Amino acid sequence: MTSLVWLRRDVRLDDNPALAAAAQKGAVCVLFVIDPGLFDRCSPRRRDLLLAGLADLDGRLAEKGADCEWNTAIPAWWSRRWPRP
């Protein structure tokens, strides 16, 4: 079974307890939902940093054999549509 780890505001891997716990159980899919309500209010520099961080995250996860999904949506909308076990 694949575990889903939803990163909400930052893209740190090294000190993320949820990601570490999921990785111990097997396959991991990391999800980062870009909330347009927050993203649109960010400065251009903050947006660039976030997108660069997501690109780095994608590469680092690929090295570890994990998937990374990005999506732009209102987080409450996304969570209602994610399949539950």
Describe the structure.
This protein has 85 residues and is α/β, with parallel strands linked by helices. The protein has helices at 17-25, 36-39, 44-63, 75-81, and strands at 3-7, 28-34, 67-72. β1, α1 and β2 form a beta-alpha-beta unit. The longest helix is centred in the middle third of the chain and has 20 residues, at 44-63. The radius of gyration is 13 Å and the shape is elongated. The model has no long low-confidence stretch (mean pLDDT 78).
Descriptive keywords:
alpha/beta, about 20% strand, 3 strands, three-stranded parallel beta sheet, about 80 residues
Compact summary:
This protein is 47% helix and 21% strand.
Fold blueprint:
Blueprint: E1 3-7, H1 17-25, E2 28-34, H2 36-39, H3 44-63, E3 67-72, H4 75-81
Structural category is alpha/beta
Per DSSP, what share of the residues sits in E-state strands of 2 or more residues? 15-25%
**Treating each run of at least 4 consecutive H or I residues as one helix, how many helices?**
4
Quaternary structure annotation: single chain
Lateral strand order in the biggest sheet = 1-2-3
For the largest beta-sheet, the strand count, sense and barrel status come to: 3 strands, parallel
Number of strands: 3
User: Can you give the mean pLDDT?
Assistant: 78
Proportion in helices: 40-55%
Radius of gyration: 13 Å
Order of helices and strands: EHEHHEH
Uncertain residue segments:
none
